[in-house]
Amino acid sequence: MRSYWNPAARAVDIPVGTALHALRHYFASVLIASGLSVKVVSDLLGHKNAAETLNTYAHLWPTDDDRARDALDDVLGDDQTDAGRTDEASNE
């Protein structure tokens, strides 16, 4: 495999020493960051079931807390940290 991988990696400027398996993890992280479901990621990675995918990549899926913050940021904008506070509340 190295006889094919190393020349191909050099041809597209992948850093020396990057294993093919690292690209698999990168691929998975890009899919997850793009919002794809565990089922889709599992299928694309060829895992036997979604549990295998979650055992490996669960830490990459956003939590509900992350989603809640993102939803509010989408509506209010990132610069709304103090929005809705009264002068009294902000002085506490």
Describe this structure in words.
With 92 residues, this protein is mainly alpha-helical. The protein has helices spanning 2-11, 20-33, 38-45, 50-57, 64-76, 87-90. The longest helix is centred in the first third of the chain and has 14 residues, at 20-33. The protein is flat.
State Rg.
21 Å
Task: Let me know the average pLDDT.
Answer: 85
The percentage of residues in β strands lies in under 5%
State the total count of DSSP E strands: 0
Largest sheet: none
Q: Assign a percent range to the helix content.
A: 55-70%
Unreliable runs: none
List the helices and strands and how they pair.
Layout: H1 2-11, H2 20-33, H3 38-45, H4 50-57, H5 64-76, H6 87-90
Helix pairs in contact: 3-4
Q: What keyword list fits this structure?
A:
92 residues; mainly alpha; 6 helices
Summarize the structure.
The chain has 92 residues and is mainly alpha-helical.
